Amino acid sequence: MLHPHAMAGVAQHSRYQHDPLGRLLQTANFIGVTTFGTSEAAYASIERVRAVHVAVRGVADDGVAYDANDPHLLAWVHAAEASMFLRGYQRFGKQRISPEDANDYVEEMSKLATDLGGEDPPHNLDELEANLQKFRPELRLSADGVAARDFILDGFVDGMITKAVYHLLVLSALDLLDPWARELLGIKKSSALKRGAIRASTHLVCFLVRTFVPPPER
User: Fold this and answer.
1) Where does a domain end: 105, 122, 138?
2) What values do phi and psi take at 188, rounded to 5?
3) Between the chain's N and C termini, which has fewer beta carbons within 10 Å?
């Protein structure tokens, strides 16, 4: 949401507001296949994404042209995704991972960034953090970003329990962000007590999901 050119591509070409769960499933399937699938399946998925990206181009609100296959924009998306996936697992995953394991994860993910066409992907935690910091001068919350932020915060699911779990996961995701990113998004920092309650509740939800929806056999 925070890179105006990446966000413009989503706003102008994505159906995320009309079919958010379908769009989420597409991304989840892509990450699943490129992480755990065969090389053939992973490369096929990457080629499909690159083919779709060919048509994702236009002009952002600052008058600058964007292209979804731009190596620079792909580098931002990769750094943001790798950082948040890693933080999410470090906080809510079943097992604790060492700094060495985290570095290995960033290194292994760099292959995906390269195959997608991203420029100069990070290969360890220090490089990943440096990459995120490098993009900070380019980041701001555009009108498209505001619309996406509010869409996510308002929610798009039905049912009292489903809505409660959804909002819990959104709050947990926001809690993973760096303070500067939350500030750019216009998200106020919760109290320590509320953050503790959110984390404890999310740990419980993750435990229940792992218990009743086990992963498929490889």
Assistant:
1) 138
2) -75, 145
3) C
